[in-house]
Design brief:
By secondary structure, the protein is mainly α. It contains twelve helices and no strands.
Length: 328
């Protein structure tokens, strides 16, 4: 073999040597690389499993915290103090003291008692008028004012919650959002949020201050608001999202209440007509045939019939009222 042949086959030999070296490297190094890759995969799997367990553990812990918070709120609601006269006056939105309330009640009782005594010349009628004026009329007024105030509060509360949500999303602290509501909202939301701010200034937390709001405005909407604030204060979470959902729920409840009221108006009208029908017939009969109907209060049997009719009418009206009272 001459030198020209060796020079011509030299590149081929070098190529074969390189290929053989790469093949040997693949044979001996690939198991090591595969082992490292499997080890890396196992490490990633273990890490993912640990992260999943941590997330599940955090979820379980959060659920436990939320359940604990709800339990505490429910226990506070069950162990709430008895509704006192001061609390009834506060729920009605009045700034009266107990002394003022009793003075007004005594004045009404004296006025109605003297009026009934003057009209009927009967001491029993006078005592009845004094009783109704001293106890019945003031409690009725407190109940009426409380219902009207609660209706205004529930109508304005979703707007106040929206103000708090927008403030939180723009980076304003929750306390400052509540101050904005206490300055700009409509009554009675404005005064109630001002009481929350003043209660916080005395050293109570925001959750405790909002929990006291439910004592003054005992409606489910306020209870929902109190639960959301307490859970966020104790367990954390996205307060703006929770309040945004609460605002949507409150507005949907408002719409549902309007639908129920519209759908139940026919039943309420029928109940009012049925309840007023005996009195209307008695009034027309007394105008057309006074001698005929006067037997009801001039004879013993007639008085007994009137008493029985009044009892059965009371039962009937209460039954109809229960039938048309729709909860939502």
């Amino acid at each position: 073999m001459n030198g020209s042949t060796i020079a011509a086959n030299l590149p081929l030999a070098v190529g074969l040597v390189v290929v053989a070296a790469l093949a040997l490297g693949y044979v001996f190094l690939m198991p090591l690389l595969a082992g490292e890759r499997r080890a890396t995969q196992r490490l990633r799997a273990v890490s993912a499993s640990a992260a999943g367990n941590a997330i599940r553990g955090a979820t379980v812990n959060r659920r436990e915290q939320v359940a604990k918070t709800l339990g505490e709120i429910e226990a506070k609601a069950k162990g709430a103090a008895k509704v006192t006269l001061d609390l009834k006056i506060a729920r009605a939105g009045l700034s009266w003291s107990k002394r003022t309330y009793w003075i007004v009640s005594g004045g009404l009782g004296l006025f109605l008692g003297l009026l009934m005594l003057t009209i009927t010349a009967s001491p029993f009628a006078g005592l009845g008028g004094a009783f109704v004026g001293g106890l019945g009329v003031p409690m009725f007024l407190l109940r009426h004012l409380r219902k009207r105030r609660i209706a205004r509060f529930t109508r304005e509360l979703p707007n106040a919650v929206d103000v708090v949500v927008r403030g939180i999303r723009t980076g304003i602290p929750v306390g400052d959002c509540f101050r904005m509501v206490s300055r700009e909202a409509e009554e009675p939301v404005r005064s109630e949020f001002r009481i929350i701010i003043e209660t916080q200034a005395l050293g109570l937390s925001l959750g405790e201050a909002v929990s006291r709001l439910y004592e003054r405005v005992p409606v489910p909407e306020v209870n929902f608001f109190s639960i959301v604030i307490n859970i966020q204060q104790q367990s954390g979470g996205n307060l703006s999202e929770a309040l945004n959902n609460l605002s949507r729920v409150l507005r949907e409840r408002r719409k549902m209440a309007g639908k129920i009221q519209a759908m139940s108006m026919e039943a309420k009208s029928s109940a009012g007509i049925i309840a007023a029908l005996p009195f209307a017939v008695a009034g027309i009969t007394s105008l057309t045939s006074p001698d005929y109907i006067s037997l009801l209060w001039t004879t013993d049997i007639g008085r007994l019939a009137l008493l029985g009719s009044a009892v059965w009418m009371t039962f009937g009206i209460l039954t109809i009222r229960k039938m048309i009272a729709f909860d939502y």
